Amino acid sequence: MNMEEKRAPHVLIFPFPGQGHIHQMLTLAELLCHSSIEVTFLNTHHNHKRLLQFTNIQSRFARFPGLFQHESISDGAPEDHPRPSGFLPDLTDVMKMNSIMSPHLRNLILNIRDDPGRSPVTCIICDGLMTFAIDVANELRIKSIAFRTISASCFWAYLCYPHFQDDKDLDEKALSVPGMEKENFFFRRRDLPGFSRQFPENPLISDSVLELCIKETFNSARASALILNTIEDLESPFLAQIRTKFQKVYSIGPLHSFAKNLRTATKDQTHNHNGLWEEDRSCLTWLDSQPPKSVVYVSFGSITVLTRSQLSELWHGLVNSGYRFLWVRRPGLVSGEEDSDIITGERGFVVKWAPQEEVLGHRAVGAFVTHSGWNSTLESMAAAVPMICWPNSADQPVISRVVGELWKVGVDMKDVCDRSTVEETVRYVMGGGGGEMGRSTAEIADLFRKSVVEGGSSYSDFQDLVKDLKSN
To answer: For 1-151, where are the alpha helices, taking DSSP H only?
Structure first.
């Protein structure tokens, strides 16, 4: 035993400034506080203000006196800068943002160290797209852990990306998965991370963005460990490949189910909202008046941008299907338009933002038309709601492929946007998907439930993470 007193664990959590990233890492902060680990949650000034404005973060974390604090730093852009849809920084300028944030991060950690009223930071859990924080941690001799908020399947695809060859045939086999030969599962070129393809209507897509994602993926290996919000039994072939390149991998998903279990156990009725948009909870009242499994929920996340033509085709396909629907129509969803009157109708209910986890868990919801973001996918699988996947960029094409072809819990509708296909797909999924889809969604939802309780793989990995954080 060292003469020096062992330092209490104090984790600084630093997400990439995007809604999906903040959502997962804030949930992780809650879980660590439940485990008596002090947490400082570091956000950009812009997103910190939005969290305070639109969420109950203050009251939620008031349950952990002395264990949770906020901090914020500049993202390098002036406060009046018109952030793109979803409030991400300009992704093509991320490296500039990182160079600006790096000295601020270093100074913040030093200031905490010099503050007699606070414990020094013992570990940085940084977003895997913010790996400059690993360099800061190394300089200050602090443990660092990278957290990637994408699926293991997509993370592995990024690791393999330098080996891909350019080819215009999008249906050509591009990537096999070791250990999955019996399932005959593979990725086509059209299933690769969306940054590898050009989408004229989406200004976030560029070669520099792809290069950044690949670079940061490999840089993540410089941390002492990697956290993924996934389930061992769901993505074991991908995790096995990732573990050949990383010292330690914690598979601790789904985080939202973990947090829900803890709140239930402690009889905590606090609503979990980690978003940067104001929720319209009137949609829950509307859902209460609908028959069971009669509503199609439609949401394309916080950054997807549609053309007016795409919106029209999706809309008419839904209307022609004959089913009721709840559509999230956030500002900025349609390229070049702030508003559109196309989404109307007596069978539909439209909100700017919805409490998605509660919506997917509602008895009235029978299917989810989604952009296949990882948070949305996890929440849908946990609720046993089948998906109609219409991916747009980043990890979404990868996820839609495994949802449709590997896990059989939805239909991959990528690269198709015509009303007849939308109508046919909605009817198929709402009609039960031939029976197999219903069985698969129930089995995976059960797998999720088992993973986050004592004895489950995610529960065990989380306990290992807590133990390692406390060991210093």
So the answer is: 19-34, 45-54, 57-61, 94-114, 132-139
* Catalytic position from the list 10, 48, 75, 127: 127
**Token pair in block for residue 234:** 């769901």
Is 107 inside any structural domain? yes
The reply to whether 364 and 237 lie within a common domain is no
Residue 3 lies in a domain: no
Q: Is the pTM of this model over 0.90?
A: yes
Q: What are phi and psi of 40, to 5 degrees?
A: -110, 120
Q: Which of 303, 254, 262, 13 is nearest to 147 (CA)?
A: 13
Residue type, 132: F
Print pLDDT tens along the chain (472 aa): 343 456 789 999 999 988 889 999 999 999 999 999 999 999 988 889 888 888 888 888 988 999 999 999 987 777 776 555 444 445 545 666 777 889 999 999 999 999 998 999 999 999 999 999 999 999 999 999 999 999 999 999 999 875 555 556 888 888 888 888 888 899 998 898 866 554 444 444 445 667 788 889 999 999 999 999 999 999 999 999 999 999 999 999 999 999 998 888 776 766 666 667 789 999 999 999 999 999 999 999 888 888 999 999 999 999 999 999 999 998 888 876 555 555 555 678 999 999 999 999 999 999 999 999 999 999 999 999 999 999 988 899 999 999 999 999 999 999 999 999 999 999 999 998 878 899 999 999 999 999 999 999 999 999 999 999 999 6
What six digits make up the tokens of 113? 């160290």
Residue 5 lies in a domain: no
- Establish whether 127 is a catalytic residue: yes
Q: Of 21, 23, 34, 48, which one is the catalytic site residue?
A: 21
Residue 300 dihedral angles phi and psi, to the nearest 5° = -110, 25
- Token digits of residue 43: 């956000």
Distance separating alpha carbons of residues 241 and 258, to the nearest angstrom: 25
The beta strands (E) that lie in 352-396 are given as 365-370, 387-389
- 248/291 same-domain check: no
The encoded tokens of residue 463 equal: 């306990």
Name the residue range of residue 286's domain. 282-448
Give the tokens for residue 223: 């941390």
Residue 288 annotated among the catalytic residues of the structure: no
**Is 354 inside any structural domain?**
yes
* Tokens matching residue 404: 């449709």
- Do both 250 and 362 map to the same domain? no
Q: Strands of 267-386 (E only): list them.
A: 295-299, 324-328, 348-351, 365-370
- State how far the Cα of 435 lies from the Cα of 430, in Å rounded to an integer: 11
Number of domains in the chain: 2
